[in-house]
Write a structure and sequence with these properties.
By secondary structure, the chain is of the alpha+beta class. The protein is built from 14 helices and 17 strands. Strands 2, 3, 4, 5 and 6 form a five-stranded antiparallel β-sheet that branches. Strands 1-8-9-7 form a four-stranded antiparallel β-sheet, with no helix packed on it. InterPro entries: UV_resistance/autophagy_Atg14.
Length: 621
């Protein structure tokens, strides 16, 4: 059952007369041979040995083969011809006794000697094998030709050094039906071996696809040897080739004729006389029927030609009616399109009118906005002038405030020491707090914290590390760093951890650096606290013109409330008078002193200045 299914699968599905060039997909060549080996001449036909009267028949050959004895090989130890060896054997048998078997024929070739291959080196064997194989290998390509076209319809690529070249598949549909519908093609094979200087024409094969034999879907299923220079045609349903030069039909006819010439006594059956007469009568009837059919066809054609005018008029009536219906349907469709076009035009007119109204309103608004812009340009110039004047006044007031801070917190250098300063007479080292007085250092840092907090207020630049000025117990907060624990660091050494105190001084120096950067200053070393603070105040007081005087009075908004204006004016005057007196006393007595408890007592000056009062003063300025 499996064998039957395999046979059904291997059958082609293209009939011989349906095979066309459009079904051809590729071509391969097997057993490429550049020089054809001469065939052994025969003095008789192939089937002469099968005649019973022949001297040597296949039956006699089998009988003689069974009666032979086993011989030793004489390929390497006996160089005598086979004939001489047989004669020597016969003579020895005659001397010894009767001959048991008939003598064998003397004309039998001996196996070729292999002595020269038995002792050769592997390199020499490989070289000889390459020479043998190289003599049969060549560079191959082919071209396809059809009738009525001089140029080839396809030229393949060149396969180098091959005996069984495989070429790429191709598609000839681009040539159109005039080529793809043909059932015959010419294959020309060109080769070039190592001994050739250029390609030579090896094979010119013109085949008709009807004469091809199907060998299978793939070459793996075909186990028979191919002839020399065998051309295989790959069609859509399998692989075909041509083992003969004529079609199977012609080959079958030739075999039937040749079978009649055999000498066998077999008689082929034939038709009887009655059957032949019946066939003749049937042929006469068929010819009569064909003649009658032709006569009736000619009569019908004559009648049709005679009434052609009447038939044409009859045929024109339904055609005219159909044309009228087509025209009416076209007119109806055009009327619908006209109505839809009118409706669309009305909608467009309404839309255009609304857009015109919108454009008109937009132009009016644009003209009004243009007038507002022209009027606003003058106001803009006035506002810009007022802003510039206000900024100049702010800068002047900042200069005055910084000048006041320099007077309140005088920073003076210590004679004989480089980059060593005092604030209000209290020395403050530059981030090195070994062998210093804790109370004096805490008081000096309190003055610095108070000054930095006031500068940040007047500069409108809040420091990133907020300061809480409380004299010698001032603190600073670090809300930025990702640390755990308390974020408030002391600016005094007594009763605090040393590293927290040093980190608080570092944050204070960073605030001074950021305030300096806000007015365009760049500090070289942030650890120098008092030099950097003095440099900041010195640059902030610089400017064109004289420093403006303090404006008298308080907040103008508070003047609306009765009873508050006089009290605020009096308090402002009292504060101004007190500050002037303090400055005079400070200059006369030469600074402040620190008591035993660490609280700095500045003659008449509060040690914990109010941050709110400084903000109020800034608003007044």
């Amino acid at each position: 059952m499996a064998a039957d299914s395999h046979t059904r699968r291997e059958r082609p599905w293209l009939l011989p007369y349906n095979r066309k060039i459009r079904h051809l997909q590729g071509i391969t060549i097997r057993n490429l041979t550049l020089v054809h080996a001469p065939q052994r001449p025969r003095g008789k036909t192939i089937d002469d040995d099968a005649i019973p009267s022949a001297l040597r028949t296949p039956t006699k050959a089998v009988a003689q083969r069974e009666s032979r004895r086993l011989e030793h090989s004489r390929s390497s130890n006996d160089l005598r011809p086979i004939g001489e060896a047989v004669v020597a054997d016969l003579s020895s048998k005659e001397d010894g006794g009767l001959q048991d078997s008939p003598p064998r024929p003397l004309l039998r070739t001996r196996r070729r000697s292999t002595m020269e291959w038995s002792g050769a080196s592997p390199l020499e064997r490989q070289k000889r094998l390459e020479e043998v194989a190289g003599g049969r290998m060549a560079d191959v390509f082919f071209s396809l030709h059809v009738e009525a076209i001089d140029d080839p319809v396809y030229v393949s690529e060149e396969v180098e050094k091959a005996m069984n070249p495989n070429f790429r598949f191709f598609d000839l549909d681009s040539w159109g039906p005039s080529v793809t519908r043909l059932d015959a093609i010419t294959v020309k094979v060109w080769v070039k071996s190592e001994a050739m200087k250029e390609h030579q024409h090896l094979l010119d094969l013109t085949v008709n696809f009807r004469a091809l034999q199907f060998i299978g879907k793939a070459l793996d299923s075909f186990h028979h040897p191919f002839p020399q220079n065998c051309v295989l045609f790959h069609f859509t349903d399998g692989i075909y080739t041509s083992f003969t030069d004529m079609s199977p039909e012609e080959h079958t006819i030739g075999l039937s004729h040749s079978s009649t010439k055999t000498t066998s006594g077999r008689t082929d059956p034939t038709s009887s006389y009655d059957q032949l007469m019946r066939l003749s009568t049937l042929d006469v009837c068929i010819q009569d029927a064909l003649a009658t059919r032709d006569r009736l066809a000619s009569d019908i054609n004559g009648v049709v030609e005679t009434g052609q005018d009447a038939l044409s008029m009859v045929n024109q009536v339904p055609e005219a009616l159909e044309r009228v219906k087509t025209i009416e349907s076209t007119v109806h469709a055009q009327r619908k399109r006209l109505e839809s076009a009118k409706k669309k035009r009305a909608e467009l007119e309404v839309s255009i009118q609304s857009r015109r109204d919108a454009i008109k309103r937009g132009r009016e608004m644009q003209e009004k906005a243009l007038e507002d812009v022209l009027n606003g340009q003058e106001q803009l110039k006035q506002r810009e002038f007022a802003i510039q004047q206000t900024q100049d006044e702010i800068v002047g007031q900042r200069r005055r405030v910084c000048e006041d801070l320099l007077k309140i917190y005088p920073i003076e250098p210590i004679p004989g020491r480089s980059l060593a300063f005092t604030i209000r007479g209290l020395p403050l080292p530059n981030s090195e707090f070994d062998n210093v007085k804790e109370d004096v250092t805490a008081a000096a840092l309190g003055f610095v914290a108070q000054a930095v907090a006031q500068i940040a207020v007047y500069f409108s630049h809040p420091p990133p590390y907020p300061i809480t000025p409380r004299g010698s117990t001032s603190t600073i907060e670090d809300p930025i760093s990702m640390t755990t624990g308390p974020r408030v660091y002391p600016l005094y050494m007594r009763g605090s951890v040393r590293y927290r105190f040093e980190y608080g001084v570092f944050l204070l120096n960073k605030d001074i650096e950021i305030l300096s950067n806000s007015i365009g200053l760049k500090l070289l070393d942030i650890r120098q606290t008092l030099p950097n603070l003095k440099y900041l105040l010195y640059v902030a007081t610089a400017g064109k013109g004289d420093i403006p005087a303090r404006k008298a009075g308080g907040f103008r908004a508070l003047l609306r409330y009765p009873g508050l204006s006089r009290s605020l004016s009096n308090s402002s005057s009292i504060n101004s008078t007190a500050n002037s007196a303090v400055l005079a006393e400070g200059k006369g007595e030469g600074g402040a002193k620190a008591d035993k408890g660490g609280v700095v007592i500045g003659n008449g000056v509060s040690t914990t200045p109010s941050f709110k009062m400084q903000r109020t003063s800034a608003l007044r300025g």
